[in-house]
Amino acid sequence: xxxxKLIVLEGIDGVGKTTQxxxxxxWLPTSGLLRPGQGIYCTYEPxxxxxxxxxxxxxxxxxxxxxxxxxxxxELLLYAADRAQHVAVDLKPRLQQxxxxxxxxxxxxxxxYQGYGRGLDLDLIAQVNAIATAGLTSxxxxxLDLDYDRARARSQHRGNPDRMEQAHRDFHDRVRQGFQALxxxxxxxxxxxxxxxxVDAITIAIQQVVRDRWQVWDQDG
Length: 221
Ligand code: TMP
Known about the structure:
About 55% of the residues lie in helices and about 10% in strands. It is α/β, with parallel strands linked by helices. Helix 1 crosses helix 8, helix 2 packs antiparallel against helix 3 and helix 4 crosses helix 7. The model has no long low-confidence stretch (mean pLDDT about 95). The structure holds thymidine-5'-phosphate. Thymidine-5'-phosphate binds next to helix 4.
């Protein structure tokens, strides 16, 4: 069986990625796009592996911002360690089996959050991402784009903000600019979805993008 596909959803916190990922997972088997028996696997970063569960707690528990703030480079390397484990034990083996992987965040989050948000050097981040992924890039990244105020209004219903969500508005604005820059620099890989639309309209937009992209993949063999 040929290599599977890695489809990633990205965006600032509160844009509705989780809902759309679940809908994509439910829709794909009915879409007629999959090969018979082709599996779908839904996953996320950080925290999808056993090692990743520890790393996620280190990264996101709010107390880490008060007790001993995590240095920016340490934060970068913890996200990278989570990704290296995820790629090695989950993503690569499943893609080799021909599965379709739907992933909530991947390398573009590191560029947007640690690069544009924290201000770490973008070349350094590219090197770290290359090490963590061993060259595995997404086949398609759907960037759900929404401004900070609306995204925050949505995420506030979820209770206590985690360490990253506690960051100031300027930080999240820079992260959004980071996603925009990634979209502009990678028009073949990153597609912008207007996440200010209502939830059903976003779902339809995503389905259309996936359908169109699948045709290209089928043509390319
Ligand atoms: P989430 O699971 O709610 O999306 O939370 C993950 C948080 O981690 C979110 O604020 C984005 C952040 N993050 C980074 O800063 N860098 C990364 O590489 C990844 C994957 C996530």
